[in-house]
Write a structure and sequence with these properties.
Elements: H1 4-7, E1 9-18, H2 25-35, E2 40-50, H3 56-66, E3 70-75, H4 80-91, E4 96-100, H5 111-115, E5 123-128, H6 135-151, E6 163-167, H7 183-193, E7 198-203, H8 218-255
Parallel strand pairs: 1-2, 1-4, 2-3, 5-7
Antiparallel strand pairs: 4-6, 5-6
Helix pairs in contact: 7-8
Length: 256
């Protein structure tokens, strides 16, 4: 059993990508505010209001005015899930960063399960033990993960789980480009390419109580595949460049 003192983090930034989540944002933020004091010495909850057309931003601003641990990032227009994740990463200030989808389908108490795996691991990702989604969404998720595992050296079984704990320094200078759901794949592939040690733990996945899931239309799906193979090519090119550089340095040392 992990000692609670060993689980305690020096600092934790939680960011919540949120688009039209007026029925969820207050409950989710307050859930984290109730859990984080016992898990981290310093903490913040960042709501990324991704161009919401409802009261998400207004509610988030009120919460920030009430509690200095809450901050809000506003997108004037919807940038997509990828854009919201990128903004959340850039806004985070603490040594550890947690991505949590803002739809209320993850339990803030499960942060403890991820925190228990650091510092042995640099990145700890959730694995939805029982997905509270319809059959087709679960099937698509498994098929996408199967493909990603074969294209990249990412040994996790739930690539798109929106509950990920990461060391902040590993995110510094990370160039992320995906606009939509492909951001999860890009994030993990680039962290693994940086040598991050990754672990995966089971977490609860709760039914969505309010609001609607955004379905992926054909245009979004095609864009995801385009971004997927572009990422594969880019990482291969970077790997080849690194090997060539090492070869040149080795040759230089041999001639000395």
């Amino acid at each position: 059993m992990v000692n609670r003192q060993e689980q305690r983090l020096k600092g934790l930034s939680v960011f919540l990508p949120s688009h039209n989540e007026e029925g969820n944002v207050e409950r989710v933020v307050r859930g984290f505010l109730g859990e984080l004091p016992r898990l981290a010495d310093s903490y913040e909850v960042i709501v990324v209001d991704d161009g919401s057309r409802d009261r998400t931003g207004e509610i988030a601003d009120r919460l920030a005015a009430e509690d200095p641990h809450v901050r809000v990032v506003h997108h004037q227009v919807n940038r997509g899930y990828g854009g919201a994740v990128i903004s959340g990463i850039r806004a985070a200030r603490e040594p550890y960063v947690l991505l949590c989808d803002g739809d209320g389908q993850f339990d803030p108490a499960d942060v403890e399960l991820l925190a228990a795996r650091v510092p042995a691991f640099d990145v700890v990702v959730g694995r939805r033990a029982r997905r509270a989604d319809h059959l087709m969404r679960r099937f698509n998720g498994k098929a996408w993960t199967w493909l990603v595992r074969r294209l990249f050296d990412v040994r996790i079984t739930d690539i798109d789980c929106g509950f990920k704990l990461m060391r902040r320094d590993l995110l510094d200078g990370l160039e992320l480009r995906a606009k939509g759901a492909m951001i999860s794949t890009e994030l993990m592939a680039r962290l693994v390419a940086r040598g991050a040690k990754v672990d995966e733990v089971d977490v609860k996945h709760l039914p969505r109580l309010v609001g609607e899931q955004s379905g992926a239309n054909l245009r979004v799906i095609l864009r995801a595949f385009k971004e997927l193979f572009a990422l594969r090519g880019e990482l291969r090119a970077e790997s080849d460049s690194d090997r060539n550089s090492e070869s040149v340095h080795s040759s230089g040392r041999s001639s000395d």
